[in-house]
Description:
Elements: H1 15-23, H2 27-30, E1 44-48, H3 54-61, E2 65-69, H4 73-82, E3 88-91, H5 99-104, E4 108-114, H6 122-134, E5 136-148, H7 163-171, E6 174-183, H8 187-192, E7 195-203
Parallel strand pairs: 1-2, 1-4, 2-3, 4-5
Antiparallel strand pairs: 5-7, 6-7
Amino acid sequence: xxxxxxxxxxxxxxxxxxxxxxxxxxxxxxxxxxxxxxxxxxxxxxxxxxxxxxxxxxxxxxxxxxxxxxxxxxxxxxxxxxxxxxxxxxxxxxxxxxxxxxxxxxxxxxxxxxxxxxxxxxxxxxxxxxxxxxxxxxxxxxxxxxxxxxxxxxxxxxxxxxxxxxxxxxxxxxxxxxxxxxxxxxxxxxxxxxxxxxxxxxxxx
Length: 205
């Protein structure tokens, strides 16, 4: 049995629904606010919490080499089949430690953390940020989205003040380039009062 990873509650049970939902939304739409910040191919991309592999496959299709980190086997194993690509390396790993990733001793031109950090409590986020920052190459980018709003049944989520990310990130050599807040792109989430903050950082060269 796969060991429990804090924050993954509900994802394995809802895997079928999530594949339909996530794969139906174009990555260009999800990441419209940061398209101008993405590196030119070929680049090294790290996708933390890669889920169904939608974004990892998108980056691979653009000519990037991608490392996709996903702790939920029900998502990761299926994603590896649906988005089979020699340009994507899948890793069973999780925040806050990213222990398996750290053993690879790699740095990336772009690190993506989409809809992930809200699953970590404050103490876990404080432990996670240095490990995330360590994966960003000098001159590279870190882009993340933070969810705000009611927690769906069966999920583990926490409200995040963006300043609790921005201030420690600055101490880790990450310069804020974008701080944008807006409504969810999904109509049902809009009705429920869900919104998102997008943060983008550049690591000092």
